[in-house]
Amino acid sequence: MRGWLKATIGLTVLGGLLLGADRIAVGVAEDEAADQMVKSGRMSQRPDVTIEGFPFLTQVLSMKLDDVRITADGLTVGDGTHQVALHSFKARLAGVAVSDSMTSATVDSGTGTGLISYADLAQLLPPASQMVPAAAKLPVGSGTRLSLSYGGPGKIKAALGQVPIGEGTVHSQGNTVTADGFKLNGMAAMLAGLTNQQVEPVSFTLSALPAGLKLASVSPQEEGLQLTFDGNHVKVIG
Questions:
Q1: How far apart are CA 191 and CA 182, in angstroms?
Q2: N or C: the chain end with fewer CB closer than 10 Å?
Q3: Does the pLDDT of residue 192 top 70, yes or no?
Q4: Quick check: 38 and 46 in contact, CB under 8 A?
Q5: CA nearest to 214, candidates 175, 176, 173, 170
Q6: Residue 57: how many CA atoms within 13 Å on its side-chain side?
Q7: Above 60 in pLDDT, residue 44?
Q8: Is the pLDDT of residue 191 over 60?
């Protein structure tokens, strides 16, 4: 009986030591991965990295991590000219093959989401004078940009200064986002002396998206434009 008890206590102590070592190792790996993502230019600021799955050390031996989660707030994205904030970024990376020094990592598949506020979205669009031919007749400055807000499922509202333009849509193809479907109507049409004047579609292409992912879709939400990302066989480090 005493031998069984000693063996049980020994195994418990050993298990605790192994668990502690595993948790320490995963913490070190998470910190190193976060640093390397910034050094590789895959993230504009240091993210929080969580490596899921237990035990971690067996994943290290296989040089492949089953499930890695990334979160960050205040990242930046842009079109090469303007940079805006990407809020509440979250990503899940599956099948992450890593080097022994964590200097390279390739992801089998990854998905993510982030949010651009409507105020920042407007900064990625050209000035109103380039979008609306009749803008010069409206009571706004030449550098005035559209003011954007949520217009309901799949829709956004636009205004020139205090003059409402109407509702339109925002959609994406590849990493390019396009806003279209807006028309001058109501007060805007009256002030411009036009009826149902179509606002020219405008597009911008986002570059250097986080974690090496690509833009999959965009969806207007009350708090801003939600971006969905995905990617297969992409490098997240290196």
A1: 16
A2: N
A3: no
A4: yes
A5: 175
A6: 8
A7: yes
A8: no
The two tokens of residue 210 are 């986080």
- AA letter at 139: P
Residues ≥6 apart with Cβ < 8 Å to 12: none
Residues 124-146 have pLDDT tens digits of 987 766 665 544 455 555 556 77
The pair of structure tokens assigned to 161 is 């200064």
81's CB contacts (< 8 A; 6+ apart) are none
Angle ∠(140,146,152) on CA atoms, nearest 5: 135
Record the tokens describing residue 151, joined without a space: 């217009």
Angle at 230 between CA 227 and CA 235, to 5 degrees: 125
Whole-model pTM over 0.70: yes
Of 41, 95, 49, 46, nearest to 70 (Cα)? 49
| Residues counted in the chain | 238
pLDDT band at 119 (very low <50, low <70, confident <90, very high): very high
